[in-house]
Specification:
The protein has 200 residues and is α/β, with parallel strands linked by helices. Helix content is 32%, strand content 22%. The protein has a 7-stranded mixed β-sheet with strand order 3-2-1-4-5-7-6, sandwiched between helices. α4 links the parallel β2 and β3. The radius of gyration is 16 Å and the shape is globular. This is Methyltransferase type 11 domain-containing protein. GO terms for molecular function: S-adenosylmethionine-dependent methyltransferase activity. InterPro entries: Methyltransf_11 (IPR013216), SAM-dependent_MTases_sf (IPR029063).
Amino acid sequence: MTAKNGRRWNHNIHYHPEILRAIPDGARRALDVGCGEGMLARELRRTVPHVTGIDLDVPSLDQARGHQDDIDYIVGDFLIHPFEPASFDVVASVATLHHMDAAAGLARMRDLLRPGGVLAVVGLARHTMPGDLPRALAGVAAGTLHRAVKGHWEHPSPTVWPPPVTYPEMRALAAEILPGARYRRHLLLRYSITWHKPGD
């Protein structure tokens, strides 16, 4: 379903600005991990001259390649694809970490980032009950309101549910693997991680 105003909306797209605000000045190369049909990659390309998207889902990448742009789309496993270490100024990912081992994914993103670069992630995690019940109910209510006003765009990529890692576990992983990272929980059932890799 296309959004009612002609613009796409879903819970993931809602938090794209979290990624875009994190782009450092002068960034030249960005990697979109789990790029799907390329919406975030295209948004990154408005600011960053060289953007690469990687995903395992061929039909989604076929859609991405249908757009007229110069983004480099790769079919492959992000964890093992032979990228050069420390070769990106921005490593971004939306709703992808729960498709892989989260610790391995964060470590790989960290290693691909150049000193001074920024890692920006928006992800899904699993609620722990009953403690998370108020947050979960508030998120469902807010999401229902957004859908009523904006419609809902269903992405073409495969889904994984429920997420294997809880919110507290995700916070702990971020603190361990990305010292000093900012971790936030958001109303629409998402978290974000922003990390600036120390410079030389």
